[in-house]
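Re: Re: token formats

Sure, here are both.
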Amino acid sequence: MSEGQGHEAIVARPYADVLVIGGGINGLATFRDLAMQGVDVALVERSDFVSGASAASSHMIHGGIRYLENGEFRLVHEAVTERNGLLRIAPHYVRPLQTTIPIFSTFSGVLTAPLRFLRHGGGKHRARGAALIKIGLVIYDSFSRGGGRVARHAFHGRRKSLELLPHLNRGVKYTATYWDASLHDPERLAIDVLRDGLAAGGDRARAANYTAAVGIVDGRVVLRDQRTGAETPFTASVVVNATGPWTDVTNLVCGEPTNHMGGTKGSHIVLDHPELLAATGGRELFFEHKDGRIVLIYPLKGRVLVGTTDIEHDMSDPIVCTEAEVDYFIDLVRYVLPDIVVDRDRIVYRFAGVRPLPGHGELAPGFVSRDYRIEASPLAGRADATVLSLVGGKWTTFRASAEHLADRVLDLLAQPRRSSTKGVAIGGGRGYPMTERSRMQWINTHRDGLSFERVATLLDRYGTVATDVITAIADDPDDEALRLLPSYSTAELSHLARTEGVVHLDDVLMRRTSLAFTGAVTAESAAEVASAIAPVMRWDAARCRDEVTRGLEMVHAADPSWSAETSSRSAASR
């Protein structure tokens, strides 16, 4: 993936037909689509790829059943269609997810839901009862007809519900179970999208992380290398602003102030809690908390993800998971699984992000549209150049929103579309074995001297692009397992650092691997990872120490209670 990647590739040829600003999933997907059309396209991201809003998702690819209450039928239909498509084209990371809704009343909400819709969330909240949820699930299932990849919903009464999930609140009257999809490794899927774009575009597709758009000079976008401070004016006929909740900030930098955005903050915690993990029965619990907010308890990677909040946020403020939000999460677990005791000691990771929602005035956050739109404006200083801003967008619909953006770009360039991205496999999803038999065959065919278990782990981790990782490991006579993280090896991590645009240690800890998410990052394990990639990154001992310090700070950036000193004392006490 390294060809066409990095700030140097941008500087070497400071012009393209299209400049995409923003390396989250929507920007990367637009980059991939345009590259597949043969467009000369460059992408820049001020931090690491997929490190902003796209890194703070609930790890779900879902149709958005609750959006039906808002009357967003177009969005739900598109989202269900895209969910089904991603199950086909990215099966290495997108997998069916059994989801259960605990329900505590029968008819509650049937009359008030339409009124809440008409009042945009106003009025007294009434819980959503079984009848209302049943109506929603029937509509939801209907959108999956003609290509559905998941089973239809099922309802159970109290006795069967408690038989299936014995730790549920005894006040439960029903459960409704339906299927959506999980997104096991969102950051790695995004890297696959980027890799595919670079491969499709050849020397006409370039991407650079840690490269910020900082201004406009004579109709050119000034790009700053965040590592050195060096600035390069870049010429493009079309600028795509895909910076999510920072869209207005980016447009201000580009000389066209806008007021499109009104994002809300969503936080999550990850728990290492075997009892809670077992109580979920291997399914996501998706339910309405006492305040009416839809929340989730979700088993993932041997941990339990709990979320999420929906809080108005000023983009000038830090994006953190507050102690009040942690209290809320602990309370919601207690509400639906009262037998399970959860405290802060079980938290291994916190993360928070701002949803790229449109401005919504006094509209309640839960009623703000999750749909997307595209806004056009001139580029300051150039009447013949256009800025296209994506307002909204979510993980589930990234392919569709990118296609719409790419179509607008192609219209501006007077260039026809060569092909659709619909149905085109992504990264390690190409040729991914979908049955146990084909999986066994794939592993045995690609072992290259490695153990069966090791290759199985790499297939799970990377999909079929694991072949490149296997080759890198087999070609390195000095490869060895890490002492503190034995499921990773030195050659594997070196391969990621060499080929996936790694600049800092936290890029590996948080986005090229799941180490941060699973709570595996300590000062000692971070130092071991830094040592493993140091030869590739050309880091000396002092740089490794600096990267470990920075890495720990970034891993814990969403935790306002964390400090290096308290972490050291806590580790010493254990």
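Second one below.
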Amino acid sequence: MTDSSVLWRPSDTAFRDSALARFAQECGMDPFDYEALHGWSISEPGMFWSRLWDFAEVKGDKGAITLERDSAAPMTGARFFPQARLNIAETLLAGANPKRAVVELDESGSRVEMSADALRAEVARIARGLRDAGVMPGDRVGVVLPNRIGCLVTHLASLAVGAVWTSCSPDFGSAGILDRIGQVNPKVMFVQPHVRYGGKQIDLTSGLTDLLHQIGGLHAVVTIGDGDLQASVPVTSWEDFGTDGPLVFEPRAFDDPCYILYTSGTTGAPKAIVHRTGGVLLQQLKEHMLHGDLRRGDSFMWYTNTAWMMYHWAVAGMGCGATTVLYDGAPVLKGADGLDCSPLWRAVETEGLTHLGISPKYLSTVMEQGYRPGEAHDLSSLRWLMSAGSPVSPRQYDWMYDAVSADMGFASISGGTEIMGCFLLGSPLHPVHRGRLTVKGLGMAVNVFDERGAPVLGRPGELVCTEPFPSMPRTFWGPDGDARYRKSYFSERAEIWTHGDHATLYPDGTAVIHGRSDCTLNPGGVRIGTADIYNVCAQFPQLEDCIVFGRPVEGDEEIVLCIKMAGGAKAEPDLAKAIRSRLRTECSPRHVPSAIYAVADIPMTVNGKRVEGAARSMVVGTALANRGSLANADCLHEYAALSERVAL
């Protein structure tokens, strides 16, 4: 790549002062030679993860064995630290910022701050309540809570007693929550009957009451805030749950379950992924300390709901000594004069955030409004901006370094709920290249395979991981969980993790994610990533959003692009012509859609991700696997009739 693609470079001091540089030196490696460090981390995984355990000051006993290999099952049979005993909550709370462990903000402007001692005391109270309710190690604790301190306390208290914590965001709706938490039979549920979002008070009482009557194995319900819930088990208020006392951490084996998270459910019932205690902790501490340069005394906030893996990921930053900043509410508010894009940037200024995490969708909204955070706020504290959820377009890179700050690192990170971490992410020792993910994660043997199963550079292929890593799922919950887990990630290539992303790795170690493999377009037998088309469409201010998918035609496939217009803009043939022209110029003639339709809305998951498969299913007339996974399933009626319309 040319120097013109470099938007930011690390300072010389980073090669001395960053945790990544210090870790490299402690391992006898040169901080200037990341390729060698990465090669060592995947060729000697037991030694690497053991060194990381010590460097991150993980509490517990790691035992004498770092990795047990299985020649018959090199990935699925590998066991890290089989003798270890540890507790995630103990390590996180030991690292908590003493004066300001956690700050809670919301869209109304309220603020609550809690010291480490106060947080530990509250965690101890709720942990005692869980034990009194009969919660034993391995039992599930479910929550339907917004992103506030109460949710964080349930999270840490559940881990402290050895329970498995599982969460859904209040905006999922009772059917979506039952599809997920209903699978795992939690013994205790924490819920909040009234929440606020986008300036509106939302009463969840009826839906929660219905939900609680359908959850099997439930022993107790705890409510936060006002609300009169009816359940067939005792219902206790937050204030009355638990008693004051010492905080006792239940030692857990490395592979004991800690979290259950759920897939989007767009291709069937959501899969309940069971995660390992030690693997999640080591993976997330590695990513925060080494790749994210998160330091003691920093302040870190990721805009997320409590169901997305980025919530769990953000909470782990506490173990680095950083203040965890929570935000509940909409990141962009509707006002009398239009949209208010200031809430997250105001938090950077008032809280002195050093790290802020957002999503490409949020970036697009702020860009479309012409908002320039760097001019509206003092963002001098911000060292790192990060994004996850979908690919970040080159145009969004340009905007961040122009409208936010030219003096910050940026990390587009890519991994998933399945691994509770990242395959590709940032680095404090590498430049930021326009439109590229920066490095392969340490300890992650990431590669891209072509259709032959051969590794390729500079050409698109399937993103894979060829060596074991500790945060691989333990299993899927339910009958035949191990078999379903292996089918999902190892059926295409025996004992090689196939992630389901279409990607390109480059000789300099950077990468591009083109989109999900199951959404890859295939006109004329040539595979095309959806992100390439989305990046071009993002350049048109007339478009609020869009979705692209393939439609079968006489033994081939044509590309269909559906566009949702921004307020006041009209879908006209000249616009469609301009989109096609730019796709032909910036991508290739094969990227040009055969049909472009204007639609009222774009199908999205409750986490705000486009659902290309649902749109395609409606257009071609196949059954839709799980409408409950969509936030706006009603919009699909329009897609069922698209083929009868005249395209632009």
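Residues 116-132 form the longest helix (17 residues). The chain has a mean pLDDT of 95.
- S.
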